[in-house]
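Narrative of accomplishments. A recurring question from our advisory board has been how the design workflow behaves on a single, concrete structure rather than in aggregate. To address it, we present the structure tokens for one chain from the evaluation set, followed by the sequence designed for it. No filtering or post-editing was applied between the two.
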């Protein structure tokens, strides 16, 4: 009887894995998302998502959004075949839309990917950027903002992983190396 249970469990696991692989193979493209950990006066901008948002309602995050072909397709190419600085341009647009501010000195911090069954997979690129000007003016998808130290950010309900990204970005901003993402607390 024990052998039958093991065989049935193994078959169920294989069936689940095949269904998952089939589902994922049907999703051919990743959404590319880029986020900004914006630094001003040694503090970082965090935004609270509206309770009506589908993903992460009422949780705190950093500004950012999806890359679309509209971000570059109508622009002149930088070389005969390519557009350059596409992610940087997208990030500047998204930060301006979500928070109303300008950014500069964009640099890579880390990346992550997800593969949710109810959505296309996403590749998220997190960057550190310096505030370049403007006053925060939130779009309708955001309800509050704060400029916080990494330690102060622990007092709000940040989307998982963002605190660790803030720690990485803060170390970079203070002259430390980038390193790789790791859970810090």
């Amino acid at each position: 009887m024990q052998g039958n249970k093991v065989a049935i469990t193994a078959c169920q696991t294989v069936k689940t894995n095949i269904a998952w692989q089939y589902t994922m193979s049907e999703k051919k493209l990743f959404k590319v998302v880029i986020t900004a950990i914006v630094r001003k006066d040694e503090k970082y901008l965090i935004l609270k998502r509206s309770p009506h948002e589908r993903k992460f309602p009422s949780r705190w995050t950093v500004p950012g959004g999806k890359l679309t072909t509209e971000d570059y397709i109508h622009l002149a190419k930088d070389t005969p075949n390519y557009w350059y600085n596409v992610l940087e341009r997208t990030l500047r647009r998204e930060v301006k839309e979500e928070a109303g501010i300008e950014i500069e000195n964009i640099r890579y911090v880390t990346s992550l990917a997800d593969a949710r069954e109810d959505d296309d997979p996403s590749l998220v690129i997190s960057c550190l950027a310096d505030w370049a000007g403007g006053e925060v003016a939130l779009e309708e998808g955001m309800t509050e903002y704060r400029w916080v130290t990494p330690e102060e950010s622990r007092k709000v309900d940040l989307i998982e992983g963002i605190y660790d990204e803030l720690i990485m970005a803060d170390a970079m901003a203070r002259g430390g190396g980038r390193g790789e993402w790791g859970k810090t607390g």
